[in-house]
Amino acid sequence: MAYERPNPDDRSDNVKKLQDMVQNTIENIEKAHETMQFSSPEEREKIQAKNERREEAIAAMREEIKDEAAARENGYR
Q1: Is residue 6, in this structure, part of any structural domain at all?
Q2: Region (Disordered): which ranges (predicted)?
Q3: Does residue 41 form part of some domain?
């Protein structure tokens, strides 16, 4: 088996990808809120729990965006 060199780490578009992920997650939260109107109490609880997890994910992604932006400013390409 031949040795394959790994692809270099390309972080050039990570900030854009993370921003898109944040936007998509926000849209999913909004859609879930709309769905709650027509849901049973049990389903509402599940949707609320999922939206809480989504909010946590958004916070983590925003922190990662800050880290990526700082790395870019410090010369990482």
Answers
A1: no
A2: 35-54
A3: yes
String of DSSP letters for 27-58 = HHHHHHHHHHTTS-HHHHHHHHHHHHHHHHHH
Residues 34, 71: Cα–Cα separation, whole Å? 38
| Residue 7 domain flag | no
Q: Is residue 69 in some structural domain? A: yes
**How do residues 19-42 score in pLDDT, each as one tens digit?**
999 999 999 999 999 999 999 999
Helix, strand, coil: what percent of the chain each, to 5? 75, 0, 25
H or E, element range at 9: none
